[in-house]
Amino acid sequence: MSNESYLKSVIEKEAQAVFELSEQVGPNFDAAIQLIENSSGKVVITGVGKSGHIGKKIAATFASTGTPAFFVHSTEGVHGDLGMIEECDVVILISNSGETAEVLSLLPSIKTIGARCISITKNAESTLASSSDVALTYSYSEEADHLGLAPTTSSTLTLVIGDALACTLSKNKDFKKENFHVFHPGGSLGKQLETND
Questions:
Q1: What per-residue confidence (pLDDT) applies to 136?
Q2: Contacts from 181-189 at CB under 8 Å and sequence distance 24+?
């Protein structure tokens, strides 16, 4: 297979999985939105590895679209950063398998603090999903790399779920361009919004 053909196959695998994700959205996604909207605190997102990298981007998207949020690395969490989490917060825990030890290790303290938990995972029967107030689950046929191992399709789906949550919350808050400009005054996008004011 040529490089061009293989590149296309990777894109097609991920695109198909994203397309199928829309059919997996159900009442639990609405429950996640309501849980966040009914909280008086921030959204805290946690994960490790590729899930951690995706979590950082999701937190940034939440924050820039009107939902205060930040990222806590799961390993750092059990070494003191759990102190950033308050009872009024909602914690989104990301683990493809739902059995990531570093992520699961946060659960006892989060429960003691009293924060609510939303999980994003492929495994509805996992420890993480069953320990969460709301579990957002997804399915896909395969990762996109030739070994079927590297987080590719799974990390893309997690990112799309995060974007969908952030955009829905922003719409529900009637978040406007001028609000976005307050949080994003820099760069070409900031200049564009300044021109439109």
A1: 98
A2: 183/63, 183/64, 183/66, 184/64
